[in-house]
Write a structure and sequence with these properties.
Chain lengths: ~350, ~170
């Protein structure tokens, strides 16, 4: 046997990074302990961005909020006996009444007056923003407190994230209050909704659903209200015409990366309308669930819908409306929110990511 | 297959140990580094092309992979299944050292598809493994103090649940 020349097979960092971009967030957070240079690679912002771009469609998780606790669940394990739920601590010890008002690229925006907290549950990075300047005592003209609409989204052109509060004053003027991570302060512009008729409807407080560069809110009008993060203006997405107007309720949801409408009708069936191609009216596809008041939770990669039957438990239906799986014991008194996993950190004016002890 | 055509031209490659490999030019196209060399040469390349960074064992594996994949792609029925089976066997047949050596060779020769496959293979191997396993695999020295490492582990406790035993 010929003698081999000894050589080290150590892989250079560029090749190690190619391997690391293929790993899930959990593995990467653990491998920060491998060495200081691996810590630097994994914490690096460009690495986080290319990792996110590669894995975004497969890194869904569900945040489960209730009993004063926050838990994170892998939606692919919802029907498993042990879904490996991860317990999270609510940052800043916000109370159990904290509301989730939006999420984007791995960040979740929690809201409890007077604070907004932007938080990445995977890395722990978080930033608190106060909006107490919007409390009635601090403004000259009265604001209508229950007109607040919150949202959180990403501006791809400026590589920046905005926390948004839309509010009305007593004179009916509407304002967009926004906090950019890079500028690091609140700014305000007067803004108009796409149609005056949307005004009444827009005062319902729904969280903002971020998708494809826009934040979407549920309003009780016949279209979805949306805000373009780059152009910084409102637009609307009409509801599908075949939906008609005869329904008991129609709620906007964001399921598995698609805008969805959950429609309850008198007929004791639930329809889930899924906009399969964003912005394409003809792509609305309806899933008919043979149950009344079915509350959808997640839209899987195999085109199945998981949700809560009104009589309890958890169920999974396929695109033909056939029951594929169900589970009796499921506590659905929690609130659920879908988010993506990422290693991303917030850009800041000082270039330092915040972390709270 | 056509008669007289470019796809039947042979290229000769020479490894570090001096072993010569005759390679069809259609296969050599997948070795982008080699193809660039050929394209850059003014005349037809007749003498063996030296590969100073590539050992016989690695080149032999790379050519085996490419030859099989070309065969699968040329339209045999059930090629997908056979290819998946071949790929699985191919990955399993190598030790960790051999896997890394092959990644280095595939990277040097710029064999895109094989490199993607190897990177994914390594990612699959290490995904649920411990920090110690990963250090071992990549030959990385731990430069944390015990206190630093403990602090980091505690901060990310959730990431250490369900890790495979070494």
């Amino acid at each position: 046997m010929t003698k081999r020349i000894n050589y080290k097979n150590d892989l250079p960092n560029e090749l190690i990074m190619e391997i690391l971009t293929r790993l899930p967030v959990k593995s990467l957070m653990r491998f920060k302990c491998v060495s200081k240079s691996w810590f630097a690679i994994i914490s690096n912002d460009s690495f986080a961005k290319s990792h996110f771009e590669r894995s975004a469609s497969s890194s869904h998780r569900i945040l489960c909020h209730g009993d004063g606790e926050l838990r994170s669940i892998d939606p692919d394990l919802l029907f498993h006996k042990d879904p490996h739920t991860i317990k999270l601590s609510i940052p800043y010890s916000l109370s159990a009444y904290v509301r989730i008002q939006g999420s984007c690229r791995g960040f979740i925006m929690l809201q409890e007056f007077p604070d907004l907290v932007i938080w990445n549950p995977s890395t722990g990075v978080n930033k608190r923003i106060s909006y107490d300047h919007l409390s009635p005592g601090n403004l000259e003209s009265g604001i209508i407190l229950d007109s607040f609409m919150f949202g959180f989204g990403y501006d791809a052109r400026r590589d920046d994230y905005l926390a948004i509060i839309v509010w009305c004053d007593v004179n009916g003027r509407r304002f967009l209050e926004y906090f950019s991570m890079r500028i690091n302060k609140w700014e305000r512009v007067e803004i108009a909704l796409p149609r005056p008729s949307m005004d009444a409807a827009a005062s319902l407080s729904s969280p903002g659903y971020y998708l494809n560069g826009a934040i979407h809110w549920d309003t009780s009008s016949d279209s979805i209200l949306a805000f373009d993060m780059i152009e910084r203006e409102f637009f609307e997405i009409p509801l599908p015409e075949p939906l008609g107007k005869e329904f008991m309720s129609c709620c906007l949801e964001l399921l598995g990366g698609f805008l969805c409408l959950c429609v309850w009708r008198e007929s004791k069936k639930t329809e889930i309308w899924v906009m399969k191609e964003y912005g394409v009216a003809s792509s609305w596809t309806v899933y008919r669930i043979p149950e009344s008041n079915f509350d959808p939770l997640y839209f899987t990669k195999s085109d199945e819908i998981i949700g809560f039957p009104s009589l309890g438990g958890l169920a999974k239906y396929d695109e033909k409306g056939e029951l594929r799986e169900c589970m009796e014991n499921w506590n659905y008194e929690y609130h659920f929110w879908m988010y993506l996993e990422s290693l991303l950190s917030l850009p800041s004016s000082s270039g330092i990511a915040w972390k709270e002890e | 297959m056509s008669g007289i055509s470019d796809t039947e031209r042979m290229i000769t490659l020479k490894t570090v140990e001096g072993t010569l490999f005759d390679v069809k030019s259609s296969i050599a196209k997948d070795l982008k580094t080699v193809q660039a060399f050929i394209d850059d040469s003014d005349d037809d390349v007749t003498s063996p092309i030296p590969l100073p960074n590539v050992f016989t064992r690695e080149l032999s594996r790379i050519l085996d992979y490419l030859n099989n994949h070309h065969r699968f792609r040329s339209g045999i029925e059930k090629a997908d299944e056979e290819m998946a089976r071949y790929d699985a066997e191919f990955a399993k047949s190598m030790s960790h050292e051999e896997l890394k050596a092959l990644i280095l060779a595939a990277n040097y020769l710029n064999v895109k598809d094989l490199l993607e496959f190897l990177n994914q293979t390594v990612a699959d191997v290490i995904q649920n493994k411990s920090v110690e396993f990963v250090r071992n695999f990549f030959g990385i020295e731990n430069d944390y103090t015990p206190e630093e490492e403990e602090k980091l582990r505690n901060e990310n406790e959730w990431a250490f649940n369900g890790v495979e035993q070494d």
